[in-house]
Design goal:
Elements: E1 7-9, E2 12-22, H1 27-30, H2 36-39, H3 43-46, E3 60-69, E4 72-76, H4 99-105, E5 115-117, H5 123-126, E6 130-133, E7 136-139, E8 145-149, H6 150-160, H7 167-182, E9 186-189, E10 193-195, E11 199-203, E12 212-218, E13 221-227, H8 249-266, E14 269-272, E15 281-286, E16 289-294
Parallel strand pairs: 4-5, 5-8, 8-9, 13-14
Antiparallel strand pairs: 1-2, 2-3, 3-4, 6-7, 10-11, 11-12, 12-13, 14-15, 15-16
Helix pairs in contact: 6-7
């Protein structure tokens, strides 16, 4: 049971563990289809927390979600990690954050985590899979099973083996993904996968080949952990806008639309990976697009 949580869905208590802020992006650089004139009618709710209209900058906090599910502690996405070599990524390179201390402030030790679920295997979602111990990368959560999409894992492995792959991506596989598999901690899943009678990993490809959304059902209430199906609330009314790092932008937009339709039609709490406080909200349809009511 979490000592400090944000709220509950049914009888599942949910908390958040902050790692770091990514602050170097602008809407114009991150979203190739960004249209400032179209966004102006949304600035009253986007600004200043989610978007600075003059500079175009927006923050992307990097955080994990932690859940107490039927007697098990579950962690969703593991952020950036410490001491990771990420050449060319200044905001992610050789960090020394207080992530584990913040986990302790939420009432959990690494040994208390039973499952680690990865929405996908990008650099800002796998870093705390491992920690550096006596010169070796070892699982940060020694008692946990790490649940990964098989499609995602195989793509990450193949990419790491390509000579043209950027060094930070090879390092990521070598220091944050391979050690988990080598230690026998990984569970590779295909298609829709159910866990603990409350969680469902459902394929939602596009941002990456094996990206999944993680659905939670408890006592008639629902939530969905969306990973990088959205990077900013601007993608709620403008769901067609995919980021420049999306593997397949059109597929990403389709998965995002399906996610938002699911949230709106069933009153599902949306819990993305990079929203500023209050970090989550309820989706509603507005004409042929969507809006959000922030908060629990």
């Amino acid at each position: 049971m979490l000592v400090k949580g944000m709220g509950k869905i049914g009888n599942v208590e949910i908390g958040r563990v902050f790692d770091s802020n990514l602050v170097g992006e602008t809407m114009q650089s991150w979203f190739p289809d960004f249209d400032r004139e179209a966004v102006k009618s949304h600035e009253h709710w986007l600004c200043p927390k989610h978007y600075d209209a003059e500079s175009g900058h927006f923050n992307m906090p990097v955080h994990s979600w932690i859940l107490s599910v039927n007697g098990h502690n579950v962690l969703i996405d593991t952020c950036l990690g410490n001491h990771k070599n990420r050449p060319g990524l200044s905001e992610m390179h050789m960090l020394n954050s207080r992530y584990l201390e913040r986990l302790a402030e939420a009432g959990l030790r690494p040994e208390d985590i039973d499952y680690v679920l990865c929405t996908h295997l990008h650099v800002d979602h796998v870093g705390w899979n491992t920690k550096l111990e006596n010169g070796r990368w070892v699982p940060t959560f020694p008692n946990a099973k790490y649940v990964l999409s098989r499609v995602e894992y195989e793509e990450a492995k193949a990419t790491a083996e390509m000579p043209t792959t950027p060094p930070f991506m090879r390092h990521m596989f070598e220091d944050s993904i391979h050690p988990i598999v080598e230690a026998g901690k990984a569970i590779l899943v295909d298609g829709v996968h159910e866990l603990l009678d409350a969680l469902t990993l459902r394929p939602a490809p596009g941002h990456s080949p094996g990206h999944v959304r993680i659905e939670l059902k408890s006592q008639g209430e629902q939530g969905v952990f969306a990973g990088d199906l959205l990077h900013s609330p601007v993608q709620i009314p403008f769901w067609q806008w995919s980021s420049r790092v999306c593997w397949d932008p059109e597929m990403s937009a389709d998965s995002r639309r399906k996610l938002l339709e699911f949230c709106a039609s069933e009153n599902v709490l949306l819990l993305p990976g990079h929203f500023e406080a209050p970090h989550c909200g309820r989706i509603k349809t507005v004409g042929d697009t969507f809006a959000i009511d922030f908060g629990w």
